[in-house]
Amino acid sequence: MAGVVVSPYLLAGIGLAIGLVSGFVGVGGGYMLTPALIVLGFPADIAVGTGLALIAGNSLIAVIRHRQFGHVDIKMGAIMMVGTIAGTECGVRGLDACSSLGQQALDIIVLGVLLVTLAGVGIFMYRELRASQRRMSEMSAEELAACEDVQSSQVSGFFQHLWIPPVIRFTKSKITISTWVVALVGFSTGILSGFMGVGGGFVRAPAMIYVIGQPSVMAVGTDLFEILVSGSFGCFRHAMLGNVHLGAALVMLLGTAIGTQAGAIGTNYLKGVAVRYVLSYSVLTALVGPGFKMAYFLTGRAVAWLHEVAVVVTIAQIFVPVSVIVVLLVMAARYHWGGKVPAWAEVLMIGRQ
User: Fold this and answer.
1) Using N-to-C axis directions, what is the helix angle for 272-285 and 8-25, rounded to 10°?
2) Is 170 helix (H, G, I), strand (E, B) or coil?
3) DSSP labels for 82-144?
4) Are the beta carbons of 285 and 320 closer than 8 angstroms?
5) Where are the domains of the chain?
6) What's the pTM value of the predicted model, to 2 decimals?
7) How many Cα atoms sit within 13 Å of 227 on the Cβ side?
8) Whole-number pLDDT of residue 197
9) Are 20 and 261 in contact, with CB atoms under 8 Å apart?
């Protein structure tokens, strides 16, 4: 595929893992998939286009499931869609312009932008989660049981009071905010989608939680709706440029179809803070493998062991959030069937029905 020999079983396994993470935390998984494909040897532009093809198909499955659970704010998603499409077009054009610099330069640029973005988002989310954890430690057992989402952000308060008309009340998400803020979030993440081959969810989901102030579980479904739009549009534009390997995307989609269903079901039983924990740690761990690959590129591809380490670490780090999600799902099943779970896990569970 694209001049690279890759086991279809490996691709299907990667698809399964990304589907589980996608359905649970509301991201397309492109921040894990694009560097993984580059590490496996795909040219950066082919990795971007193929990743968007998978994200588009995977998000459709996830949106249908989250819509059944009532986790999608269609009104917010529709407004954000305008900015997302405009931003995606800018990202695609930017990537196409950078391709004139040569394949090696393009690989370094795409991977470099992705690493910087991952680091920024991961560190911000980690700091906010520590603040939320402090708030949880100050709550009584009764308050924790009644509270389904604990988050800490002064940023969302600022933007919700930024009265720039038109200001809209989003009944589903229970917030009132300027349309321009919602559209700007869509535009900025759309640029990332078109340029890096990601759905933008690893940036947009935190932005919807911490900037817009949307509840975490609602942000999961609404973000997946946005990823469906940006992924589909980005896939179409990259297909026009010949950057999509449909065969690889279809093999991975077989795995994501299963994983996405399980991940989406999990959001019905776990509090929003559990979603944010998994997202933040998956973003931070996603830095390691591509970091080795970047070192391999910067040394002029002369140090072979850097590439080998990058391959092993990148594949391994995909399954880190998967392992955490599986443990949480098992704990949630035990809890809701009346079984006992550790104290740390019980804090993350939605009360028994």
Assistant:
1) 140
2) strand
3) HHHHHHHHHHHHHHHHHGGG-HHHHHHHHHHHHHHHHHHHHHHHHHHHHHHHHHHHTS-HHHH
4) yes
5) 8-320
6) 0.71
7) 40
8) 62
9) no
